[in-house]
Backbone:
């Protein structure tokens, strides 16, 4: 009996330290998990509030105690948000090495390659995720956006259509599908009518212009052919024009124009060229030239623009500088547009001082070269609307005043409407 009691006592003595050690380990592990979770939330809060350097320090401290996929992903995201894409790739590769099926890592990788403009690589990561979940709407939508950015418009539309087949009420997919379908339509025919009505002091009948154009998108850029018919000063004339918008590089494109006419209503020839560049932070600028050849004189105009997208608004300033023997004329136009569901739905306001050579009603021979130097003030309101995804209507009204005599402005009114068919 004594031996039995002694045995039980020995077992208790040996077992107690082990149980104590196990309890301590479990307790410390629980405390560490709690501290780790709190630290992760703190790091996440720092990252979202813009203190990403501090967030990274905390993430690295947590990871030094042991691997945590959520913390590693947060670390990788903070690198990406600060444009340190190589560091992001190192972290995300480590996450995928631990778990090749980590969808959040694939999502982050797709974003990094998209932001780096490595579109093919970004699509590969989307496809890796879609192999695991072919109906994942988030990855399908991300893939559609990347395809569109890489100018694979038809594939982007097909991907959005797949989302809508999965979920017919997905609002983002429905909205983007309307926008992307416009890029698939490579052809457009446009009919335009303009009438200018003048005050009695002008002693001038209304000017009228009808223009019919056909445009097509190509791999090299958009090309437009146009015929203008004008009635002015009791004469009717024809002008033939070609416009081209060649793609130069990712952030550069051009504008080329040539027009000719055998009528006294238009310049005999006109040429134009302009270079556009997309700058960081949604700025766009351009510099260009226009030359107009009349029967008795030639006019050269230099032009430049600076514009910026601010949320759904586009604000731009364009200037025209016309040197001449009697001095240099300067015109300026401030334009503002508010876009709605897509680029073909907007309202706009333009304020102008001087005359724009890009508007045909201002190019009337024989007084066009002098008209370009008139002191003119103008206000224009415009509206552009896409109907049933294939029709565009674009009316505008304008009021202007010309200084026929020093300090004496006479008014004119313009109504313009165009209808475009996309196909």
Residues:
């Amino acid at each position: 009996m004594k031996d039995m009691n002694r045995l039980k006592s020995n077992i208790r003595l040996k077992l107690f330290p082990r149980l104590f050690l196990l309890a301590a380990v479990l307790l410390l592990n629980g405390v560490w998990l709690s501290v780790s979770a709190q630290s992760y939330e703190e790091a996440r809060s720092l990252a979202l509030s813009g203190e990403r350097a501090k967030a990274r320090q905390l993430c690295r401290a947590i990871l030094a105690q042991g691997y945590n996929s959520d913390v590693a992903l947060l670390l990788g995201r903070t690198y990406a948000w600060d444009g340190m894409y190589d560091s992001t790739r190192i972290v995300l590769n480590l996450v995928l090495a631990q778990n090749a099926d980590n969808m959040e890592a694939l999502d982050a990788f797709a974003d990094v390659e998209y932001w780096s403009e490595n579109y093919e690589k970004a699509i590969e990561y989307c496809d890796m995720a879609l192999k695991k979940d072919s109906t994942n709407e988030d990855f399908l939508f991300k893939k559609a956006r990347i395809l569109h950015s890489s100018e694979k418009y038809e594939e982007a539309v097909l991907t959005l259509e797949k989302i809508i087949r999965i979920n017919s009420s997905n609002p983002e997919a429905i909205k983007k599908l309307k926008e992307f379908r416009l890029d698939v339509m490579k052809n457009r025919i446009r009919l335009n009518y303009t009438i200018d009505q003048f005050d009695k002091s002008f002693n001038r009948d209304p000017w009228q212009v009808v223009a019919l154009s056909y445009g097509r998108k190509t791999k090299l850029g958009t090309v437009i052919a146009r015929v203008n018919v004008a009635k002015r000063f009791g004469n009717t004339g024809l002008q033939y024009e070609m416009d081209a918008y060649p793609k130069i590089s990712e952030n550069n494109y051009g504008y080329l124009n040539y027009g000719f006419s055998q009528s006294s209503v238009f310049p005999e020839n006109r040429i134009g060229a302009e270079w556009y560049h997309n700058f960081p932070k949604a700025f766009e600028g351009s510099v260009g030239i226009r030359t107009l050849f009349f029967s008795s004189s030639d006019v050269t105009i230099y032009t430049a623009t600076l514009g910026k997208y601010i949320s759904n608004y586009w604000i731009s300033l364009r200037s025209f500088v016309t040197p001449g023997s009697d001095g240099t004329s300067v015109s300026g136009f401030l334009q503002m547009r508010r876009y709605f569901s897509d680029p073909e739905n907007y309202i706009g306001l333009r304020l102008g001082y001087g005359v724009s050579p890009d508007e045909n009603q201002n190019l009337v021979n024989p007084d066009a070269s002098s008209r370009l130097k008139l002191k003119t003030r103008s206000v224009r309101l415009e509206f552009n609307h896409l109907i049933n995804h294939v029709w565009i209507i674009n009316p505008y009204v304008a009021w202007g005043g010309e200084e026929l005599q020093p300090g004496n402005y006479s008014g004119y009114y313009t109504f313009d409407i165009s209808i475009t068919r996309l196909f």
The CA atoms of residues 196 and 414 lie 4 Å apart. Residues 2-48 form the longest helix (47 residues).
